[in-house]
Amino acid sequence: MRRGYSLLIVGGILLVASVSIAVPSIYALASLAESMPTNTSTKDVINFALNMNQTAIKESLRSIGIDVGLAFLGILVSVTLMVNGIIALIGGTVLVIIDRRRSRHSPISK
Hints:
The protein has three helices and no strands. It is mostly helical. It has one domain (2-105). Helix 1 (2-35) packs antiparallel against helix 3 (55-105). The longest helix is centred in the last third of the chain and has 51 residues, at 55-105.
């Protein structure tokens, strides 16, 4: 009878973990988007980086790329955890209902 409740607890923990990973990742992407100029497209940034040989510009673009990659990885991990948490919550709910029905309909032996 405890397996359903443990799945519900694990599902809740996974959902909390996914939210705690997703919120900083989304905040990092939002702050990075606010720091970028609005009239610059990605094509302009790439062309500018390819035409310049300055190491500071290349390092700054590499740093931006790493930040964006880590933020998207965090969002991907949080979505995966969220889906697993929802599946665990559904499975735990089903098991709790099945266990309750079995305990109600079990024959009384004397």
